[in-house]
Fold this sequence. Notes:
Strand content: 25-35%
Structural class: alpha+beta
Number of strands: 13
Oligomer: single chain
Number of helices: 6
Helix content: 10-25%
Shape: globular
Largest sheet: 11 strands, antiparallel
Low-confidence stretches: 8-23, 29-71
Number of domains: 1
Amino acid sequence: MAVRRPVDPHRMARRAGSVRLATQSTTDPGKPTDMSTPISRSRLSRRHALQAGAALGFAAAAGATQAAATQGHGGRSIPLAFNDPIWNRETRARLEGDTAPGRFVHGYATGIVHAVRSGEAVKPLFGFEVFSGIRVLRQPDGSYQRLCRELIFYKDLKSGELMDQWDNVLTGERVKVVDVANDPFNYIISEYFPDPPSYGGLNKDKPPKRPLLLKWDLLGDIVSHDSDIHLYYPNALNPAKWPRESSGPMNQVSELFRYFMRREDVENPELTHLPHSGVWARITPWLPWMLMDGAPGYIYYMGKFSSIKTPDMAPANVLKRVEERWPLYLTAPEKWVDPSLSSLENYARTQQPQPPKQKT
Length: 360
């Protein structure tokens, strides 16, 4: 599931199979922590000041709360500046990771995977659990390298146990369940929207540079952030080679994120990571290990995410699987490496095609 890069709302360019999660800061052992990373203090525009005033109503209680919050961090604050690309860059970096040197964040998400087929009701299939680590590294030009590795496990809806096999209720066949392990999925956070991922050359879309102006809203004293992404690009699982796993020659994928954070946290310069929670939805082809043989239909993920302070705040069975099978994922990457691939491309690299289904 992967939270996901900032997406230009005027372009349809985004990765598939990678989720950005609600996160909590973690310090690397033996590494210094610097809480003084400079943050942009661009002025709030007159229009957004009026919008903020209307949203908050200038109620006395809200004003008192905000004044107390401001006094709590030395009288300094970072005013909201939704129309400032630098403010967007810095806020996005604080949301994705922790801008203090030597620190990274963990994320956790949970939800349900549904089957969508024509002529019938949407059907819940199984649950999912996501565990990730994200680090942001500030570069000399002010941009950030966003470094991520993430896992997705699938679980039985009745027992809650993580699955290694699943009885496909759509086909009646027992199939092997494959964990998602995306390492890495990296991109640059700057004052411009990043180039879309190439997925090893499969996605050739190269939009023009646009200032990083993301979708933000005020809901009372809550700042919300929308990140909706839509993709259509060649499938790494070519149906000629992967007849049982492939959904066809092209992948159609959408991911929709809603982040929520406290306004006083966003305006607090002492917070180098922004605690947040939210909801995530994903529309994607059938998971390849379901062995759907190119049948019509698709998958719909619906989940929520929230901060975890330490890995042991994830469910015990999730942490156990991370420790036993994927211990590297207990920390975030420390340096940029290529390529960054989605779960579908990684599946094509790590798995073998199943033989065609025997006709009866």
